[in-house]
Design brief:
The protein is of the alpha/beta class. It is about 55% helix and about 15% strand. The termini are far apart. The structure holds NADP nicotinamide-adenine-dinucleotide phosphate.
Length: about 325
């Protein structure tokens, strides 16, 4: 694995270039501000009537309508939600300069064909491995967030150098830039979202909570046991790795984990994980995302409303309010 840091990277490929950030949400805000603080010429492209305009201007950044921002820039970063990339790219393609660089922070829309960039464009990926809020706060603390980077299309011969300089300017090369590909980043990220951290872990917490409550344990105690300790293990794993985490917990907890962990996460879980990976690679999730966007996010809205009314959420509210 190749990991590049600040000292390995030449910042000059971005010198004198203008970067248009399209979308001022979680990643757009952080990347625009980090680029600006690194001395890069940044314009934030907003749609007409955007609710973000006042905030962007108050932060000292230049704004323009999306097409004008794109037309004025040598580097254009697609930081609107993935599911609108297809429509957004159709809108901006005529304004993209010949030989411009088009950047992404997730490989999904290129890997699964939502965006088919023009042949004259450089197409690169810099995908920070965490939310924009942390990307920004780490940068301000003089640190950085690790990121994956890749080039899908090198039309001008400069795509690799621009991608690395971009990763450096948003602060990620302080922690490290790891070479990947659009396919690897997209597939691994979508797999993790479904099967591990964002899909699997919360369902494990809910199943544990429900089992304890059904067994007569009070919801508050069940919540503190099953959910309240999650941040402790996350912090230990981040600082020491999984083996190191096990070495510092009590013998009681370590033996419990040894006896129980593989009973719960057995081979059948690996089989279903492999199925998820096969489906992701076949583009099934990308199809689901397109359908969801087309329906006005009906399934997500329904799931959000239902989740707020579950016993585990009511318990969280009681503990959080102290009521
Ligand atoms: N969220 C993360 O932690 C994270 C981490 C790594 C990578 N990524 C990737 O970063 C990219 C951006 O994700 P995100 O979570 O930052 O997105 P987000 O917060 O949902 O983006 C919202 C922004 O997109 C703008 N937008 C929405 N539709 C638009 C349109 N049709 N034209 C122009 N702008 C539009 C919104 O404009 P208004 O202000 O006008 O509403 C808003 O500024 C995605 O590719 C994502 O996979 C995200």
């Amino acid at each position: 694995m190749e990991m590049l840091r600040d000292a390995d990277i030449d910042p000059t490929p971005l010198a004198g270039k203008r970067v248009a950030i399209i979308g001022y949400g979680n990643q757009g805000r952080a990347q625009a501000l980090n680029l600006h603080d690194s001395g890069v010429d940044v314009v934030v492209g907003l749609r007409g009537g955007s609710g973000s305009a006042l905030e962007v201007e108050a932060s000292g950044l230049e704004t323009a309508l999306v097409e004008q921002a794109v037309a004025s820039a040598e580097v254009v970063m697609m930081l609107a939600p993935d599911e609108i990339h297809a429509a957004l790219y159709r809108e901006i393609e005529p304004a993209l300069r010949e030989g411009a660089a088009l950047g992404f922070s997730h490989g999904l829309s290129v890997r699964f064909g939502l965006v088919k960039p023009r042949a004259d464009l450089d197409v690169f990926l810099v995908a920070p491995k965490g939310p924009g809020t942390a990307l920004r706060s780490l940068y301000r603390d003089g640190k950085g967030m690790i990121a994956l980077w890749a080039v899908e299309q090198d039309a001008t011969g400069s795509a690799h150098a621009i991608a690395l300089a971009y990763g450096q300017a948003i602060g990620c090369a302080r922690a490290g830039l790891i070479a990947s590909s659009f396919a690897e980043e997209a597939e691994a990220d979508l797999f993790n979202e479904q099967a591990v951290v964002w899909g699997g872990v919360p369902e494990l917490l809910v199943a544990g909570f429900d089992t304890l409550v059904a067994g007569g344990v009070s919801p508050e105690v069940a919540y503190l046991e099953c959910v309240g300790e999650l941040h402790l293990i996350a912090e230990l794993i981040e600082a020491r790795g999984i083996a190191g985490m096990r070495e510092v917990i009590s013998n009681t907890a370590e033996l419990g984990a040894l006896l129980g962990g593989k009973r719960i996460v057995d081979e059948s879980v690996r089989d279903r994980m492999a199925e998820v990976l096969r489906e992701v690679r076949a583009g099934r999730f990308a199809d689901e995302l397109r359908t969801e966007e087309a329906s006005g996010y009906a399934r997500l809205e329904k799931a959000r409303a239902e989740a707020r009314e579950t016993p585990i959420e009511r318990t969280f509210k009681r503990l959080d309010d102290g009521s």
